[in-house]
Amino acid sequence: MADKGEHIDDLQLRWVQLGKGSFTGGEPALSQNAKVHTLWTITQGTATVLLHGRPIPLQPGTCVLFEPKATIEVDGSVDGRIQYYSLEFEAASAGDEEDGEKLLSFAAGRPLFIKPFAPLMDVLDLLFDLRTAVSGMERFKRNILLQEAIYLFATSASASNDSKDAEHVVERTILYMKENYKGKMRLQELADLAGVGIRQYTHLFKQVTGASPMDYLGKLRMERAKKLLLVASNDMVTVASHVGFKDEFYFSRKFKQHVGVSPRVYMQTREPRVIGLLYTSHLLALGHVPVGAPDYHLFENYYVREHARAMTPFKWEPCDMDAVRAMKPDLIFGYEHMLSEEQEQLSQLAEVIPIDWHTQDVYGQLRQISAVVGKRRQEREWMERHLAKADQARERIQHHIGGMETCAVLVMECDTFRIVGSRNMGHVFFRTLGLNPHPLVKQHMEAGEPFIFSEPKPYDELSKYDADRLIIMVNPKDQGAPEAFNELKMSERWRNLAAVRSGRMHIVPFNKWWVYSPLAIDGQLDEAVAFLHKEDVS
């Protein structure tokens, strides 16, 4: 009864090799024949392989065992990328009842979720370190680890064969649907992933969800389509393609069946529920109030505070995913330095739209966001008002202080300081008002890359940036910074700075100047004009 693994205690294994492999959709098709037993363990990404022409879906946490002479194919058109361990070994039988190659047949040819996955990964990592073992003792240890790896795999395969727990079977295929809904998906493929026949799989799925697998997939696609349709820059063809439909007219009919109105009517009558994260202020400038915002944005951002009552706060570090889920957002604006884990979790709740933070200025961000939420007119109107205000302010300040004096903007930390470029708090001083940067600051700006802040510099180097005018912000989030700066102000080093001697040193409050956003630069402009024109001395 090899199909139940009853004689697996007769199994004898011999090491062949272990390697790491990867494959990305768009690469030339991969096709190979397994010469010996080959166990693929997927560590990253999703994709589909073909075993004798039959599709097998793969995702992190799954293993698939290919028997000798099996044909393994990965089509270059597959949408996905996988990284995996490929463990090759020979199997023999110690007894007469079973042929060694058949002892593992009960576990071969289908994807298996390994739970818990970490113990198998630990063993494979150790095996990888010993793959080129030379000494007899190292090879002995490698053989023991090989036995352990196959034991962990076979145990999961046996449990899957014996229990077929309905909820677990359905949950793993639902996860696969959510990650691969835009690709072609067949019922046989889902049943194979579950490790049961089509009829049993359909019955189990209805037991757990109340719907058939294909109906559930259709609903999943339509829910995703609803969110995509609320991205104003998307057209019908793009949305249809993204949720697995090649024909936009067929997609439109299916959408109306599920939702009750056509996609175009839905787009025109439904305003998206948005969470802006870093771009909360951008949305407010466009007249679009987010449904929620990180707590620090609502309570620490001076220019957003007056709108706080209209939004629901949620904890950000770490992100309270349950609170975000309760807001039922359609769109969430992300950014390039978002943690991959956070992005993956948020993607399960809404369509995450990436907006470049570091590589474009606040105007570019506002323009990109306005295109997504359909607020291009509001963006143009805000820009016209702001730029007109900026022109008046620049003329006034240039007339007052002239264009010859130099300026440096510094962020003071504990025992160090940073130079500020023409972005963030430097935007208003250098770009809007056109103040003349100190020569060393100008060198940083002209270095070729977007210059926001320099690396920390010791207080000893302050004299190198002895500009005619200094704009200072103390960073209270850096522990000890306020105390260190107060001590610095008592020193001769500080008193000898030209801006301090002439009374052209200005300390700006952190709560008004740490933010870089449309509302912030508009408010900061008023602040800057006030203290520069009055020559308030701090």
Describe this structure in words.
Residues 171-269 form the HTH araC/xylS-type domain. This is ABC-type Fe3+-hydroxamate transport system, substrate-binding protein. Residues 271-536 form the Fe/B12 periplasmic-binding domain. There is one protein chain. The protein is of the alpha/beta class. The protein has four domains: 2-163, Regulatory protein AraC (Jelly Rolls), CATH 2.60.120; 169-269, Homeodomain-like (Arc Repressor Mutant, subunit A, Orthogonal Bundle), CATH 1.10.10.60; 274-373, Rossmann fold, CATH 3.40.50; 395-534, Rossmann fold. The chain has 22 helices and 20 strands. The strands form five sheets. Strands 15, 16, 17, 18, 19 and 20 form a six-stranded mixed sheet that branches. Strands 1-8-3-6-9 form a five-stranded antiparallel sheet, with helices on one face. Strands 2-7-4-5 form a four-stranded antiparallel sheet. β11, α11 (295-300) and β12 form a beta-alpha-beta unit. α1 runs antiparallel to α2 (136-163) and α4 crosses α5. The longest helix has 28 residues, at 136-163. The protein starts with 10 loop residues before the first strand and ends with a helix. The relative contact order is 0.07.
